[in-house]
Amino acid sequence: MDLGISGKRALVCASSKGLGLGCAEALAEAGVNLVMNARGAEALEASAQAIRDAYGVDVVTVAADVTTPEGQSQVLDAADGVDILVTNAGGPPPGMWTDWDREDFISALDANMLTPIALIKALVPGMIERGWGRVVNITSVSVKSPIPVLGLSNAARAGLTGYVAGTARQVAGQGVIINNLQPGIHATDRAVSLDGGAAKAQGITPEEAKAARCATIPAGRYGTRQEFGATCAFMCSQHAGFMVGQNILLDGGATNTTM
After folding, report:
1. Count of other CB atoms within 10 angstroms of residue 131
2. What is the pTM of this model?
3. Please, are residues 240 and 175 in contact by the beta-carbon 8 Å criterion?
4. Which residues face 38 on adjacent strands?
5. pLDDT digits (tens, 9 = 90+) for 92-137
6. How confident is the model at residue 194 (pLDDT cuts 50, 70, 90)?
7. By CB atoms within 10 Å of each CB, which of 32, 201, 228, 248 scores lowest?
8. How many whole angstroms separate alpha carbon 1 and alpha carbon 239?
9. Which helix H or strand E contains 4, and what residues bound it?
């Protein structure tokens, strides 16, 4: 399928590895030029060069912490005029409700709610002027089905989801489509961290923790960054113009719900 976005330009945050990299790769395969952002310069440039070599698109890298004012300024300078925005940030650490203080919540909100909102506010007006744009926020299955040990993520990402629900419907008539993509467990560093935490808490090996988690997923496995990226690329395509303010669940069927 021709996604109809060849020659467009996208900012993909946290894209040196994991789900962000999957999205960058899929957009590049569709002919989209990229601004890739992550904190680690070495891994970011390595991923960017691999994409240049594989797909022949233009890739600009910005090694910066986009959750800080300085990092946002650097990223937005490089991303001026982009047609597509993919927001993404690693989730806050797991724990119990008794573990977190106000500063923990402020940090989670900065990374997983306020930073995506700041990027949307900065870049969507230009999309409106040009009459076309796409925004995909990578959130989490925890918005749909809260995960007890991820209370910080539950709270921050639910806040972003509420913001998007209203904003998406205000800008859709001007050609800008905003949606959220909710990953379940995928084979990324985040999954390794969660499996390690579960293993430590239960006194088992990480491999046993992974096997136990896979057993709860009807698909019987973790997702891959490639299939996640392909879903994101479709949501950024010309074919997604009637998909407004939606939360697309990609979790292998793990969330047992009718709607």
Report:
1. 9
2. 0.94
3. no
4. 63
5. 888 888 888 999 999 999 999 999 999 999 999 999 999 999 999 9
6. confident
7. 201
8. 10
9. none
